[in-house]
Design brief:
The chain is of the alpha+beta class. The protein is built from four helices and five strands.
Length: 121
């Protein structure tokens, strides 16, 4: 990235104004509801395609009233092992919330849950 002098990060550092980049980044995050203005809940599950389909249906059913991105396209890990993921986006003030916590606890143990995951895609 440092070879691209038109990159906003490189420009602000070269100009000695990294605060400008920070402010612009915060505005974008607020506009598109990314952390710290939202909480993401990452869901990951895996297995055969049939198992993935069954778990994806449970996720869709459990969180039908929420802003869920996914299940994302399935990734093949090994010959007959696949992984799927989904992300729930919540307003920052909405988490933690009792009803949502109960829905998460009711998920099958095969679904791994991470609050504010490092990777969302």
């Amino acid at each position: 990235e440092t070879r691209r002098t038109d990159n906003p990060i490189v420009k602000t550092i070269a100009e000695g104004t990294p605060l400008a980049f920070y402010r612009a980044e915060r505005e974008l995050r607020e506009t598109y509801q990314y952390p710290p203005y939202a909480t993401f809940i990452g869901l990951t599950w895996g297995g055969t395609p049939a198992i993935c389909d069954a778990l994806a249906a449970k996720v869709r059913q459990a969180f039908s009233g929420y802003d869920v991105v996914g299940p994302l396209p399935r990734e093949q890990l090994k010959k007959n092992e696949w992984r799927e993921r989904a992300v729930i986006r919540l307003p920052r003030t909405f988490w933690p919330q009792q009803t949502l916590t109960e829905l998460i606890h009711a998920l099958p143990p095969a679904i791994h849950v991470v609050i504010d995951p490092d990777d969302i895609v």
